[in-house]
Queue: 2 jobs
Job 1
Amino acid sequence: MELRAENVCMRFFRKRGEANFFEAVCPVSLTLKSGELTVLKGKSGSGKTTLTHILAGLLRPTEGNVFLDQTNLYALSDETLSELRNKKIGLVPQGRSAVDTLTVYENILLPGLLYSKADNSPEAEKWMEILGIVDLRDAMPAELSGGELRRLAIARVLTNGPQVILADEPTGDLDDENTRKVLSAFHACAHEENKAVFIVTHENDALEYADRVLTMDNGRITFPLFVD
Amino acid sequence: MKRTSPVIKNLTRKSGRTTALVLLTALLALAVFGGSIVILSLRGGLNSLENRLGADVIVVPSTARSKTNLEQILLQGTTGYFYMDREKLDKIIATDGVESASAQLFLASLRASCCSVPVQVIGFDQATDFTVRPWITESYSRTLNEKEVAVGCRVSAGIGESIRIYGVNCPVVARLAETGTGLDTAVYCSQETLQLLLDAARDLGHDLKISGSSENVISAVYIKVRDDYDAQKVADDINIHIRKVEAVSTKSMLTGVSDSLKAVSGTITWLIIALWILALVILFIVFAMMVNERRRELAVYRLLGMSRKMLSSMILKEALLCSLAGALCGVALGSALVFPFTTLIEQSLKLPYLTPAAGTIVLCAALALAVTVISGSAASLRTARKLSRVDPGTTLREGA
């Protein structure tokens, strides 16, 4: 399975200023392949998050297309794209992404229950154990620290088992030990479970786990760097 | 965790928001249900009064503001009495357009050692009566013997018991169906029994202002007018040709009651509409406030794979459950406020008041539930639409 962006551009229109729009991403072509962990580095405001949301099917680009194998994501109806995202693309977004009215455990199981009645409990238990949040299973999101919320979001994606994992600053709120746990988990997903993993970061911790490192600046991928 | 559980959890774990929505919708249901029941009870009271009067014209003595007294006796259950010579009955029967006429005799018992309860006692002529008899027949098919009485549903005496009126023990043989009028607090007997009670009252020293024998007096005459005659014209003829009586067309008497009822019903209807609009506006505001509060939460649902349709459906389900819970609370509260206090409502409105049948009450409850649930859900539609169109990418980019 591969996720492919072809000449995607994203322009945001401004109400004021010298230009009436700015280009957050322009033009970017990128392929994420199964069994490969890709890291995208770049400064804040370079367009990494926008590109990640475009790849996840959450933000329609102003130009270009995104394909999951042969399927053009933005040619799909909202219902089909939503179901496809639920089943095949997992996104760990920046910031808080927990549903406040559900416990940690309920949050982790939620994606698996939207379209099926699959019992993901064993997977949930496994990832909560690995990511060190098993003791927080009945806690509400309001009781968690930033790092715990981040691990919740990661456990939720990994439990649902998508073929493509997109993680936006997944280690931003984590200490060194938890950073290593998370990056090892993503590495294992790519190499043991043959998933396409894409990590967006401005830190260097992820580089040693990467098969490929890309750099983004001013909305453009400046150069690809392969890592042995 | 079941598939539908996020809805329940959103409601139970955001209890403040849920309680506010439930209270608002309860207010809406209370207004619709309580108001409808009061209006229907007033209409039922008027219909019942029309049925029970059963006459086109009623003739009473012109003395002592007797018309007012008659209305008070009929509508509010006030006790009273007034008399005229029996010979008036013959003159009334001889009037053009009178198909049949039957006399009634009134007596008011006292709250004193002579009597068990202060009630209006009405003696009717069992041979000619066409107003009381059909009513009594609903619960008692035999004729009333001497001293036997039938009691209105609000007289506290059961069948087989006796009530004492001016020292005379009168066995109760029937309890009558509710009318919602002053007639429910009266006691009914044959004219012969009432003459006996009049004599007993006079023997006890009560001045009933009757000259001569009690057999020669009557209190009111109920007239049925022939189909080809106008009741008002017959009443006018009686007023012109027979001295010291006042003939009242029941239609004109009921028009007064009906006008009051229209005024009260109109006020209640406007109150329901005002409350309904107020609750709906507040519901719209509450739901609109939720747009900002829940924007990020719903963006998360979208990123996890919920479609716009699923998101709208979730918000609608929440609104539907809140509205349903509120509607049930409102109907329960309405029942608790309206049904135990029917006498109080009747007394304060001074209008006949007859609680509708169980089937009608159930129908009103269903109507209140439907109106409330539809209004609550409709108020959330705009929010559901707006929230389902939240761009998750942009919302998530806007930060935590």
Job 2
Amino acid sequence: MSEVIGRFRFMNEQRVNLDGFATPDANLGLVAFNSPHDPQPSLTVHDGAVIEMDGKTSDQFDTIDEFIALHGLDLTIAPEAMAIDSLSFARDLVDTNVPRSQLVALASGMTPAKLADVLSKLNAAELVIAMTKMRARNTPSNQAHVTNRSDDPLLLAADAATAAAFGFREIETTVPVLGDAPSNAVAVSIGAAVGSPGMLVQCSVEEATELAMGMRGLVSYAETVSLYGTEQIFVDGDDTPWSKAFLTSAYASRGIKMRVTSGGGSEALMGGAEKCSMFYLEARCVSLARAIGAQGVQNGGIDSASVAGSVPGGVRSLMAENVMVMLRNLEACTGNDALMSESDVRRTSRTHPIFIAGSDFICSGFGSIQRYDNMFGPSNWNSEDIDDFLAMQRDWGVDGGLRTASEPDVAALRRRATEAVTAVYSWLGLGDFSSQWAEQAIDAAGSKDIPTADLMLPLSASRTIVDTDVTMLDVIAALAENGFDIEAQRCLDMLKARVQGDYLQTAAIFDEDMNVLSLITDPNTYAGPGTGYRPSAQRQQVIDTIRQQQSVSDIRAEQHAYATNNIVAIGAAAVSHDPRDVVIGVSPATGKDIWRTLSGLSVADVLHEFMAGLEEEGCVGRIVRINDTVDLGMIGLTAARMSGSGISIGLQAKGTALIHRRDLAPLANLELYSVAPSLNRELYRLMGINAGRHAKGATPEPMRNPYSDEAIEARYHTKVVGLVAIERDCSSQSQPETMEVR
Amino acid sequence: MPQGFSGKDSSEVSVDAIRRGDVTIDDVRIHPDTLEHQATVAAEHGNAQLAANFRRAGELTRMTDEYVLSLYDALRPGRSTQEALLQFARDLEDGGAPLNAQLFRQAASVYERRGLTAQ
């Protein structure tokens, strides 16, 4: 019995079975919550110092424990906080009568094991409420990845402008070739400035290089300052809590926003989980992030999201990590970054609760570019998903940070972005671009569409940027000298924002008027239904009005483009007594406002097929417009009663058709084509033939509706509603008319 | 309007001034007083650690980029002996950076205990 039955062969072929699913194994750190080796929460304070924490005395502290013990806890509130029952605190997290501020204050005295214990008690629905209530900033936002395989500056700039047009407020770029980093930073900054004021830009590379670019003003925030939950993995990453704390201050000293990166599963992935659960280790990272003075955390698995996703409860733990960051009163950039599943269903399920709750940044890297161009690796959401995401926003009335953008607007922005980069690179002696390259970059869906790109240009441009000490001031001057005054001002505004320093505060972004939205200026006010962030009427309009939506007037105009004069009324229609006579009853809009069926055939062609099919059977078709009803059954029955044979064909101009007989009830019929979008000429011909056979008293083999596994209804129901409305507008009490098809 | 690190008022920094070459990178760098102000705001909003970070940052504003990067490197694992870390701490203390000096002193102690000092 080695053969696998067909049902399981079929199931095994589904994309979800490309994903890895691990048997939980605490010894390898392959458990989401509650490893038997996780410590119980505890804290002992003596003379104002922590002498014991989470089961370890201070002489046993590793560097992570030590830093948290020295800097990370509010010891004035810690005794009270540690004494609170975890379940009762978890309930307060979802109680809209308990204010966020109270919970945040108590959490500042909680050890990593205590935070892990509290948050492991929330189920998925409770995490949604807790995230809604606990995130720092009221207004949700989103971040884009903008990268490509060739570090093409023109494509980077065009794609950065495009990301801004779709509403992203932060752009993260990186490089396949480390030496290209300065050029990428310049190109993305210019493209972002073309797209919108107030765009935050980072170039993720090795820590020291990233800081150096920040110091030159070439980027405006940093994110890839990685933290790990075990000392071994931390040191393997060539850092310690002290070096990271210093780096955090170094960024602030140059007025550069930064957040740290962590995420459950990374330690297990690197073989250094020390038998602890992913969630407990992440609690250590989040506690450390707060201790070193970072304003925010990017977590929720990130590169190790699929490791968390491989164990039971892992996806829930990713969201719980995000809520933990929020509970520590930090900015939460909530993962949904690296692609965590081959399955569209699973990857959507992973994001959806966060999407509806809203976070400071829903994705800490929505791949706004092609998957193959994403140098971080494909994201959980990619350029092919932008319209899906916009539709989801519209479906749920949710603000996921994005907005629709029109093709002409994006085309114009992409052109201006390539022009601006071309001018700046030429002015600063960084390189020259051919007009062919620029045209390809404007049109490109991805770097594969730009065969003319010179792969050496980014590297030589970067060398020149470093060697000649190009700063953002030089870029601004070059923009201004070449007529890009708006972009020059936008880049300068980002530099001035550093002088002001308000965007260093927790969860800061800029709106398009350069207002800082942060924990300070735009705090989360959620306290139950009717409170907290609600899109303004204007913003809701933007969310609701996606470019694909169609009104009846759009559908009417679409039909009008196909209007001809080949279906005409030639006079009043009478009852016939000729037994060969078969009336083809057509709907009120036929020959007036509807010219194309849902399957794309012209209504005239459909009528020709009916006539031809009837003729094959020796019958005579007679087309009569039934003006007083839009109901297909009534059209067919009315036609049958005028028909000499007593048999009729009824047709709605959108393509739905049936065969009727004069002695039947309106809703009964002999045969019906209900799936108009799938009908072709041959099928309409067959209906003519069968109608003829019915007229002759025979019993033909019934027609079969074509089968489709596509979402026919989703595709066409909007049009159906519009076309029926048009039919209704055309209907009147006027008598049936004989029609001629030419 | 706040002042840049150089003391120049932010309102004097314009695109035209940049074109004329009248703006240096220090004019668009944050001033330690501004970081002190941000530290106060952070503390008022319940984040003492963020405030402490801004205050450490305030001390670093006066140092060159290269020196800041070298300090960062000195704190990476296995880069510095305990004595070297303590010497950095003394230099920082003397240079008016007591908060960063404290960070180095702590590192000197814990790195030695955890085997993260250079041998």
